[in-house]
Amino acid sequence: xxxxxxxxxxxxxxxxxxxxxxxxxxxxxxxxxxxxxxxxxxxxxxxxxxxxxxxxxxxxxxxxxxxxxxxxxxxxxxxxxxxxxxxxxxxxxxxxxxxxxxxxxxxxxxx
Length: 111
Fold this sequence. Notes:
- The structure is a single chain.
- By secondary structure, the chain is of the alpha+beta class.
- It contains three helices and seven strands.
- About 10% of the residues are buried.
- It has helices at about 35-40, 65-70, 75-85, and strands at about 5-15, 15-20, 25-30, 55-60, 60, 90-95, 105.
């Protein structure tokens, strides 16, 4: 019995094989397993591990335990908020920081 989702290998060439689907007749090139693994290893982009983000302000409230764990104080936090155009911590929806010091900031929508 014909299975419409079955695949037919039509040819192989230098580590690649061309697969034709019976349903659509489309052609797709698929790398052999060893070549896929090599391609993944060789195409990796080295990135610096910056760690997870810790929430320092959530909906206008300071999470003091996280602030302390990150080695920061409220004076530093207030300065970060002001540098981002907000005067009051209560107007901050979310402020997070990772181990590399990168900060994500979102002000509350006023209105």
